[in-house]
C-alpha cells in the first residue's frame, strides 16, 4: 500500500512539476463557445445545462494541462452551487482527471467531529470512489482531523495560514508564549502528522499555507519540516515564485503551488490574446507550462 | 423584510420551545421497519434505497416533533455520504420541514473566502430555495463570514466554542492579553454581528457554543449579549438543562439547544421501551416534549 503523500511526491517528480491546477469554474469568466450566457439569466433553472458546460470546460483544461501538473483541485463550492447536477459534474471531473493519471485534491474545507467527520471522509475519501485528498479546517481540534486520515492511501490538507487579506483576524492572534495562533496550529498539526508519515518523510496530513504571506510561509516551513504544503495565492492573489521558494526542501520537495483563474482563464490574458477564446485549453497549457517553469527556476535542482 | 433572527425568535416563542431537532440519520440506529439492514452491506450500491428510507424517517420525525420545535438541523455529512441521492433527500427534507412551518438550520460548517464563500451561500442560502441558515467555520476571518450574511432573511451560525473533547486544542489556547482564543473569536464575531442586528437586538450572525462547557458558555454569554447561540452537546454528550441556563436572557431568549440522537432514536431508550420500534415517531415526540419542558423549567419565565 502506497501512502497518499508518497504517491503525490512521486507524481510530482515524474512530471517535474510543482503546480496544482485549481478547477474553479467561475461562470462569468467562461468562453462564450462553452457557456451560453443566456443560461446565466436564470441559473437555478438551467443547472443541468450549466453543469454540462462546466464538465466540457474541465475536461479540456485537464486534457490540456495534464502534461504539466500532477494534481488538480476542484473547488467544491462552485459545484455545490449547481445542486445535484453540479455534484455529478464534480464526480465526472474527478474520474476524468484519474483517466489522465492525475491525483485529485478536493477543496471542500470540511470539518466536524467523530462520526460526522467520518461521514465526510466516507463521502469524499471513500476507498473505491472518493478523491485522493480533501482540504479540512482544523478549528475543532484533533477530533476533527484524525477521522480524515484513517485510510493511508488518502490525504488531508488542513488550513493553517490562509492567503486571504483577513486571515490575520484569528490566525495571527498573539499567544502568551510569544507565538501566534497559526504557529500553534502548525505545531499541533505536526504532532498529529507524526502518525501518518510516508517513506518520503512527509505526512498524509498536509497543510494549506498562502503564498501571500512569504515571511510566515518561511517561518512555518522551518517549524514543521515534515508537513507538505498546498500553497494558494500565486498569481491572481499576488504571490510569485520567489515568495514560495522557502516551502521546498533541497530535493525540491515539500509543496505544490496552486493556480486556478490564472490557468483556467488564461485565454483572457493579454499575453495569450492571439489565441481565439475557443482555444482556452491551449492558453491554459501555455500558462501551466510557464508557471511550472517559473517555480522550478527558483529551486536549486 | 423580516430578519432571520427575528423570525427564529418569533417561532420559538410561538412554540414556547427552545430546542432544535437535529436530523442526523445514523444508519445503524434506524428501525428495521424503516431501513433493511441488508442494504448496508453494500451502501455505495444502495445509495438510492437508503436515501429514500432516510427521507421517510425524517418526515416521520418532523411530523411527530413539529409541535415541540421551531427549527430542525440536518447534519449535511450524513446526506453528502449518500451522493446525489442523499442530497435529494436533504432538499426534500428541508421542503417538508417548511411545509410543517419549521425553520431549517443546515449544519454544513462551510468556510471559504470571497467569491467561493459567496458560492456556498448561493448553494445553501439561496433566496428562493435555500435553507434559512447555515453553520460556518470562522477560522478564515471576516472574509469568510460576511458573504454568508448578505441576505438579511438568512442567518449564519459560526463555530465558537465547540462541544467536543478536543475543542480545547485550538479554541482554548491562551492569548497574550490573558484571554483565550474562543473569547477573542467571540469578540471578533460580535463586532461583525453589529451590522446584522434584528429588531429583537440579536444578530443574524449567531454562534455555536457547546453545552459540555457550561463555565465557558456563561462567560461567552456575558461577553457577547447580542449573539444568539446554537448549543449542541445536550443529552448524549453530557450537558443538562442547568448547564445551558446561562445562555438565555430574562425573556428566555438567546439560544436553541440541539438534540439529535436523543430525539431521532428515542425509541431505543429504556424509558420508551413500551413503544414498538415502528413507533419511533411517537418516542421522538415524547422525547422532544420532555426536552422542551426540561429547558423551560430552568428559565425564569
UniProtKB/TrEMBL annotation, chains A, B:
<keyword id="KW-0456">Lyase</keyword>
<dbReference type="GO" id="GO:0006207">
    <property type="term" value="P:'de novo' pyrimidine nucleobase biosynthetic process"/>
</dbReference>
<dbReference type="GO" id="GO:0044205">
    <property type="term" value="P:'de novo' UMP biosynthetic process"/>
</dbReference>
<dbReference type="InterPro" id="IPR011060">
    <property type="entry name" value="RibuloseP-bd_barrel"/>
</dbReference>
<keyword id="KW-0665">Pyrimidine biosynthesis</keyword>
<dbReference type="InterPro" id="IPR013785">
    <property type="entry name" value="Aldolase_TIM"/>
</dbReference>
<dbReference type="Pfam" id="PF00215">
    <property type="entry name" value="OMPdecase"/>
</dbReference>
<dbReference type="GO" id="GO:0004590">
    <property type="term" value="F:orotidine-5'-phosphate decarboxylase activity"/>
</dbReference>
<dbReference type="InterPro" id="IPR001754">
    <property type="entry name" value="OMPdeCOase_dom"/>
</dbReference>
<dbReference type="InterPro" id="IPR011995">
    <property type="entry name" value="OMPdecase_type-2"/>
</dbReference>
<feature type="active site" description="Proton donor">
    <location>
        <position position="109"/>
    </location>
</feature>
<dbReference type="InterPro" id="IPR018089">
    <property type="entry name" value="OMPdecase_AS"/>
</dbReference>
<feature type="domain" description="Orotidine 5'-phosphate decarboxylase">
    <location>
        <begin position="18"/>
        <end position="275"/>
    </location>
</feature>
<comment type="pathway">
    <text>Pyrimidine metabolism; UMP biosynthesis via de novo pathway; UMP from orotate: step 2/2.</text>
</comment>
<protein>
    <recommendedName>
        <fullName>Orotidine 5'-phosphate decarboxylase</fullName>
        <ecNumber>4.1.1.23</ecNumber>
    </recommendedName>
</protein>
<comment type="similarity">
    <text>Belongs to the OMP decarboxylase family. Type 2 subfamily.</text>
</comment>
<keyword id="KW-0210">Decarboxylase</keyword>
Amino acid at each position: 500500500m502506497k501512502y497518499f503523500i508518497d504517491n503525490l511526491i512521486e507524481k510530482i517528480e515524474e512530471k517535474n512539476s510543482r503546480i496544482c491546477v485549481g478547477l474553479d469554474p467561475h461562470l462569468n469568466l467562461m468562453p462564450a463557445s462553452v457557456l451560453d450566457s443566456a443560461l446565466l439569466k436564470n441559473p437555478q433553472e438551467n443547472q443541468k445545462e450549466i453543469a454540462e458546460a462546466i464538465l466540457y470546460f474541465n475536461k479540456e483544461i485537464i486534457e490540456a494541462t495534464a502534461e504539466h501538473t500532477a494534481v488538480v483541485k476542484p473547488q467544491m463550492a462552485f459545484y455545490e452551487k449547481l445542486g445535484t447536477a453540479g455534484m455529478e459534474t464534480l464526480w465526472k471531473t474527478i474520474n476524468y482527471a484519474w483517466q489522465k493519471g492525475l491525483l485529485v485534491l478536493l477543496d471542500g474545507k470540511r470539518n466536524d467531529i467523530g462520526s460526522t467527520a467520518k461521514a465526510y471522509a466516507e463521502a469524499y475519501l471513500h476507498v473505491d470512489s472518493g478523491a485522493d485528498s480533501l482540504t479540512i479546517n482544523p478549528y475543532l481540534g484533533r477530533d476533527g482531523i484524525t477521522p480524515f486520515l484513517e485510510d493511508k492511501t488518502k490525504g488531508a490538507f488542513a488550513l493553517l495560514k490562509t492567503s486571504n487579506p483577513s486571515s490575520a483576524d484569528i490566525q495571527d492572534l498573539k499567544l502568551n508564549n510569544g507565538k501566534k495562533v497559526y504557529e500553534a496550529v502548525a505545531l499541533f498539526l505536526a504532532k498529529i502528522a507524526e502518525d501518518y508519515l510516508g517513506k518520503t518523510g512527509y505526512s498524509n496530513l498536509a497543510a494549506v499555507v498562502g503564498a501571500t504571506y512569504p515571511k510566515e510561509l518561511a517561518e512555518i516551513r522551518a517549524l514543521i519540516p515534515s508537513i507538505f504544503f498546498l500553497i494558494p495565492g500565486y498569481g491572481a492573489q499576488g504571490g510569485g515564485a520567489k515568495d514560495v521558494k522557502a516551502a521546498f526542501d533541497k530535493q525540491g520537495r515539500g509543496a505544490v503551488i496552486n493556480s486556478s483563474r490564472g490557468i483556467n482563464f488564461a485565454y483572457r490574458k493579454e499575453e495569450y490574446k492571439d489565441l481565439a477564446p475557443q482555444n482556452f485549453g491551449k492558453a491554459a497549457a501555455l500558462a501551466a507550462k510557464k508557471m511550472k517553469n517559473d517555480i522550478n527556476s527558483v529551486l536549486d535542482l
